[in-house]
Amino acid sequence: MLTTEINIVEGIKDKYAAKFGPETLDTARIFRSPGRINLIGEHTDYNNGFVLPASVDKAVYFIVSPREDNQVILYAADLDETYSFTLDDLSKPAQSWAHYQIGIVDQLHKNGYKIGGFQTTFGGNVPVGAGLSSSAALECCLLFALNEIFELGLDRFSIVKMSQKAENEYVGVQCGIMDQFASAFGKEESVIRLDCRSLEYQYFPFPMQDYLLVLCDTSVKHSLASSEYNTRRLECEKGTAILKKYNPAIESLRDASPELVEAHKDELGEVVYRRCKFMTEEIERVQVACDLLVDGNLADFGKKMYETHDGLQHEYEVSCPELDFLVDQTRGNGSVLGARMMGGGFGGCTINLVENSAVDDFEESMKKAYLDQYHIDLPCYRVKITDGTGEIK
Ligand code: GLA
Predict the structure, then answer these.
(1) Domain coordinates in residue numbering, the chain
(2) Class of domain 3-206
(3) Nearest-CA residue for atom 11 of ligand 1
């Protein structure tokens, strides 16, 4: 374990002991689920396309022990807030942070899995609202923990799918499968190419000797995020329905091509056309980008990242001025191979592929520019790719 990780876990353990009594630590187990980055392939997951995520060294940790009764006590260490409920009452509380955990219990119920009561203290260092998917980490971590503690026999795929459903059905965000998959299946120093249609996946080593991945956190989250996310899904479905008339085999935009989209531009209409154009191009781009990665051609890989950003900004329209500003700052900087907004959009982080030796200067100039423009201190995170969800022994 890294020193920061040890400190975080020790801190949560202390809080667990203070809350539930030190003697209950004997029966408690500790679990970890990381946040994720995504190198390329944005908004492609719910269009059955490809994504290229990885799990990173920012994670959530749950200390969990079973109880004799049917009570669940959730203690959010970082917020110093508690929410308790019984297993037969899964109604939605005002505290939105508890929705992810109750959503998991709800999924277990719906799928016929029996668990007993439990108590947990959780916390971590995944920045919330920064596009690193702290929500998927919460879901995967708790489900993984309950699966171990109550010996439910779920495999990782089931954990991923049920965590996604918890978010879709209980939290109410129509997210795709990328975040939960990355959090559960991440592997040290590797990125995962996931085919979101077949769920086939492959690990690619990501060389981190000469280049680093640096996240620049706009520190903004525009309220449009979830409504526009659901709107994009509908726009893509609309495009699919129109294209399907010309080729019945088209079930999603994964099955369409940029040429087909171009051929039906007028019928698609201006907005849906732009969404479909970006999406079909992005799905192809991930394939090309993976080949570049295998060839060790990071320079051209970086160019693909810029292409993705441009498409997300102008055609898919999920960026925002702060994200565009940060990406624009890097253009023409010889030490930056690629930069783009990452995740759902409307705030959160940009992901930057930066020459190792230039990272200090890069961060300094980005921070200065952002402070001048937006009067916000820009958090920068140098991420390491770590293993996915697991128990800490
Ligand atoms: C959010 C969703 C993911 C994915 C990304 C965009 O993180 O949770 O499923 O759609 O946005 O790529």
Answers:
(1) 3-206
(2) alpha beta
(3) 344
